[in-house]
């Protein structure tokens, strides 16, 4: 609870009939980040996954999430170090030439996708202590 008090001022004031307190929400959010699980896989002890997801989406759109994580890092409660960041065509649409597609004048596709230049990437942020 002492760590929560250090960042409490960075959190929005809760109004109305709030189901999950900010502390419970942050614990659920940190669980998803640390374990790399899908929102639907969030254990029931943290609450309804969709409610947690909707608040996370709202906070991200309003800039609250960035403010919270800056406060968490400033107070050295969590340290996040991104070691790799990659994009693939499911995340970002690019021109076919940009991702190694075969040109029309080339003979045809080879048997190996690697020879054609189509690459696969994985994004895996890791938390460090």
Distance between the termini: 19 Å
Mean pLDDT: 75
What's the helix-strand series? HHHHEHE
Tell me the overall shape.
elongated
The spatial strand order of the largest sheet comes to 1-2
Number of helices: 5
> Would you tell me the structural class of the helices and strands?
mainly alpha
Account of the protein in words:
It is a single chain. This protein has 129 residues and is mainly α. It folds into two domains: 2-79; 82-129, no CATH class. Helices cover 38% and strands 5% of the residues. It is built from five helices and two strands; from the N terminus they run ααααβαβ. The protein has helices at residues 2-7, 22-35, 49-62, 64-74, 113-116; strands spanning 79-81, 126-128. The protein has a two-stranded antiparallel ribbon. It is elongated. The two termini are 19 Å apart.
Keywords:
two-stranded antiparallel ribbon, single chain, elongated, 2 domains
A few lines on this structure:
This protein has 129 residues and is mainly alpha-helical. The chain contains 5 helices and 2 strands. The relative contact order is 0.13.
